[in-house]
């Protein structure tokens, strides 16, 4: 077993020296590539400070953004190709140190890179070269989850917890506090869950098995332990601020605040256990651990009682929120309009009826013209055969329609009198009958015309053929 481990170390050292030689020859960023390889080599010890300083300078604000992006790409490429837990852990330590001590440009470029590639997602990483490597690989995965959650928390908070400088007790009135102490309710309900999730990932970085006594893991655990103090301080100040605003919250916000309060009590106990484990390690000899106290359960009961009474308290402000749209007010007006429109059809029917009733009198309104049917020559011929001639004369029936056919023609013309203008006066003479002549007068005029034609024919025959009357008998 010892021979196998010695061979693996020798093989790792050979790979590192080969990559350093290739970086000197083929890379445009030779110094940076060499620093990355040497800071993350296979030797089980923390990265050396001189190599870290070169990487910090390469990712500072005085360097172009392209250099910063190349450094992140180099770290990501090396992390994706390695199967050694030592190399993977040292790469994560370098990224963690750059996030804590580097310029904001590195964090910004890392966020941009994480949107395209998943540099910190090592859920499938494992090193099964030995039982020790197996336990250490599990801790590497939890450490990567913590760093990934750290970036997600920064997206929500818009600032870095570790970069926040808390005022000392002498500078303030009572003691220093974090930004969460001054947030409003909406921001508290958004930021506190993110901080609690980050604290959950932090507590998950508890080494187990062979990873507990490993020196390089304890070095990384010390970085995590340092950040736990400010994270807990931010959560604690946020909970104090949340309690102050709790009894002024509406019901839906109070329910979310109660869940945050309950989780804070659970995390206080889990963080206490995590601190007890770290106190027994060599890394914690110089640390001063805070005293954690869980929130009182009596106050939790008071918060639950407030939520049960909250619907009656906030029922008045909640109802107008549902009635901000003016539809309920416009609804009756529309109904009124619709109800007002419903009685309108009867007036329209009345108008239609009145039109129907007025139209026929309009045709009969003009008085009948009294036509003298007497003989123009004083013969007083009554023309008894005029009706029979009218019925037998097809040409007269074709020119002048009968009463049954004239009525619809007259009504249709009356309906089109306002909107219809016939083209041509000849068509108007044929299609539009005279409104001053009734149906009775028409029949009388027809009889008179035939009587006159018969009379003139008789006179003409008598004048030119007087003897023709001799045969009339």
Report on the structure:
The structure is a single chain. The protein is mainly alpha-helical and 473 residues long. Helices cover 67% and strands 0% of the residues. The longest helix has 32 residues, at 215-246. It is elongated.
Main β-sheet description: none
- Helical fraction equals 55-70%
Total count of strands:
0
Series of secondary-structure elements, N-terminal to C-terminal: HHHHHHHHHHHHHHHHHHH
The overall pLDDT, averaged over residues, is 74
Cα radius of gyration in angstroms: 54 Å
Which spans of ≥5 residues are poorly predicted at pLDDT below 50? 312-384, 393-420, 425-430, 467-473
| β-sheet strand percentage | under 5%
Overview features:
473 residues, mainly alpha
Summarize the structure.
It contains 19 helices and no strands. It has 473 residues and is an all-alpha fold.
SSE map:
Layout lengths: L1 H25 L3 H10 L9 H10 L6 H17 L3 H17 L2 H13 L14 H27 L27 H19 L11 H32 L4 H29 L17 H17 L1 H8 L4 H15 L3 H20 L21 H7 L1 H6 L3 H13 L9 H7 L7 H26 L9
Helix pairs in contact: 1-2, 2-3, 2-4, 4-6, 5-7, 5-9, 7-8, 8-9, 8-10, 9-10, 10-11, 15-19
